[in-house]
Amino acid sequence: MKAVHLVPAGAVLLALGAIGAVASLDRPAASPNPAAVTRQVMVTAAARACPPALSGGAGTVALIAGPAGSGGSGQADLASLPPAGVQLQPASPISAKGPGVLSLLTVPAASTVPSKGKGSKGTSEPTGWSVTASGTMAQAMEAELASSSGLASLRCGEPGSDIWFVGPGQQNGAAQISLELMNIDSLAATVNVSLITDAGQVPAGNETGITVPPHETVTEALSSAAGNSGVVAIEVHTSSGRVAADVSEGGSAHGSTTSWLPSAAEPSAQLVIPGVPSSSHAELFLTVPGTADAKVNVLAITAQGQYRPFGAQPIDLPGQSASSMALTPIGGTAAAIEITADVPVTATVLVPGSGVGAFTTATGPISEQAVVAGNISGSGFTPSVVLSAPAGSARVRLTEIAASTGSAGSRASQVISVGAGRTLMVPVKAPPGAKGGVAFAVVITPLPGSGPLYAARVETQGQSTVVGIIPAVSALTTISLPPVRDSYDAIAP
Predict the structure, then answer these.
(1) Looking at residue 416, what is its pLDDT?
(2) Does 458 map to a domain?
(3) pLDDT of residue 482
(4) Which of these, 454, 431, 453, lies nearest to 442 by C-alpha position?
């Protein structure tokens, strides 16, 4: 038995009290015990963080929360996460509409406190925003940083303790690399940032022990640390607390040529990257974070079937390396990229477009449903949902929900079938009755009996210029609570 006396008595009592609040302690018995059964409970709280707008001024958050017509109580609010150490005028929280309604919420830049003196004015400061929801509004919540028209450019991320990014370095168009660290909690977080480039592991330098105060944003410039690299992988790891993180890359720290580099999946031996549109110049960025060398296999899942763009032989990559390779063989069809390796890796795909380009990263298969809040059609813009079923066929319901100033927006839906081992690109548009150019959300729901489904929203402009990709992530209404046992192993060190 573990020496439980090493745990302070107060901590043990507190932990047991917390356990008892969610489930009864089960007792070993020959017959099944209800407490040992995994239970499904409704989601009652959700939190995200959105980075400052790239323009440095006001921005827009596309937010949809709670199933339509669900009733019940709940709320969703945005609150500012100002730059650390800057004295700002207090900003009032911004509230969203009711459940199932797409809201486009304008988030202003923060204003500094004016200096004393006649005629003095405060200056505007870019600020991040926390998104918190409770009750019914926490279910199926999705929030994205968007343009004023409602087109999403980045999914607002969940706070965590280990977050990865991998993408181009300075030699591939990312002259400026900036990291936004946002703390939505009431306790300070301590962050260590490590980098791997195509030249190998980068010395830690000054990117360790970064303090992110509660409810504030810290911006770190990483261009000099990345050196003159072609590829850069960034790990954001907290030694205390948690943060949400986002990376911008471009020719300037904040400007029209800057693109968001979304967070990559946690390193794994198997990844699926959805939503790779047809392009003759797509590029795959890979990193091997561990010290062991990797053998990597790449499989493209297209409308015509599956094939290996780099041949049947695995790609050999050294440990603690970051590299890139052209995906030119994918040609003129949308695809998902499946990556398998003998050690954990993580990856991102870059598609040429505005700024540095548009990125898509690995996601898990959709459970319950996924939501992409910020989409627009018309005026030269065309959104599509790219659906991939690597293992088994899938039937999917796509529901479009228009933004509305009333209690609910107009809706439309369609059911799509995706063959096993195939990818399908489905155009979507605002539902009938919606005003031209109005923003709308897309809900992606795998139907019962479907195999694993992966998806992403791809937005194009003009003659197929890609202006944004949003990988679809599960937006849960329920979560599973595992059984709790009467053992101190859960709380003892």
Answers:
(1) 97
(2) yes
(3) 76
(4) 431
